[in-house]
Amino acid sequence: MAEFDVTIKVETPLHLGSGQADVNIDAEIVHDAYGLPYFPAKRFKGLLYESAVEVYEMLELSKISTKNILPPEQLFHRFSNDADKVSDVQIIVPNFYLKDYEKLCADWRYLQKKYPEVFRAADVLKSFTSIRYQTKLEKGIAAAGSLHNLNVLNAGVEFFGKIEILNSSRRVINLIALAMKNLTSAGTKRNRGFGRITCTAKFENDSVDSIIKKFFAKGV
Questions:
Q1: CA 158, CA 29: separation in Å to the nearest integer?
Q2: DSSP characters for the chain?
Q3: What is the gyration radius of the CA atoms in the chain, in angstroms?
Q4: pTM (2 decimals)?
Q5: Measured distance CA(2)–CA(165) in Å, rounded
Q6: How far is residue 195's CA from residue 186's CA, in Å, rounded to a whole number?
């Protein structure tokens, strides 16, 4: 089994929508019961797959050999038909949490239980987020009733987790490193400058940049 220690850093305000809203917020972000934000596993895995496909296609278009990376569909099991399901490689992606998440949970659990009127989940979330307002313009004028807001993670927030690979190989490691490097955005409103992220990872003693350098080295 191979393991990647992964860090996701928010570079510009990021909206990871929860699909929920209340009287004050039209679009809330995902967070736990204590108000601590996190990066959902399913969402990150989907983004990593999309990035891997993009990388694979860029290599093919650039006439760069792909023999030393595993095709994305084999790692992520996105096969077009049952006959193609021959891969025994499996990627396990967790939720990504704030640093010292378990201690933060214990602290906030205690405070919210002892002082529920003071320490609320919504107030905890505010320490990591800000509200952005947007409106739809029609001929340069704000359309009636179009004003809405969304909660966004502030730049600088970092999430941590460990990706595990069962039945790994150098081809798998190369693919993940390239996909991780290529993954630079997440969430909604990306066309407005939202959701820029930086993903860094280490496999054993190798960084993503080191793995990529070896991949492109002559003769690799």
A1: 15
A2: -EEEEEEEEE-S-B--B-S---SS-SBPBPB-TTS-B-B-HHHHHHHHHHHHHHHHHHHHHTT---TTS--HHHHHT--SSGGG-----EEE---BB-TTHHHHHHHHHHHHHH-TTT--HHHHHHTTEEEEEE--EETTEEPTT--EEEEEEPTT-EEEEEEEEET--HHHHHHHHHHHHH--B-SS-GGGT--BEEEEEEETTEEHHHHHHHHHSTT-
A3: 20
A4: 0.89
A5: 5
A6: 5
* CA–CA dist 42, 95 (Å, integer): 8
Query: CA 29, CA 71: separation in Å to the nearest integer?
Result: 33
Helices 170-182 and 41-61 cross at an angle (nearest 10°) of 100
C-alpha span between 62 and 44 (Å, rounded): 27
User: Would you give per-residue pLDDT tens digits along the chain (220 residues)?
Assistant: 889 999 999 999 999 988 876 767 778 899 999 999 999 999 999 999 999 999 999 999 999 999 999 999 999 998 776 555 667 999 999 999 999 999 999 999 999 999 998 889 989 999 999 998 776 655 556 565 556 788 999 999 999 999 999 999 999 999 999 999 999 999 987 777 789 999 999 998 899 999 999 999 854 4
pLDDT at 81: 65
State how far the Cα of 158 lies from the Cα of 67, in Å rounded to an integer: 34
Q: β-strand 148-153 against 206-207: which pairing, if any? A: unpaired
Tokens of 217: 């080295």
Residue given tokens 């990388």 in the structure block = 55
Residue type at position 67: K
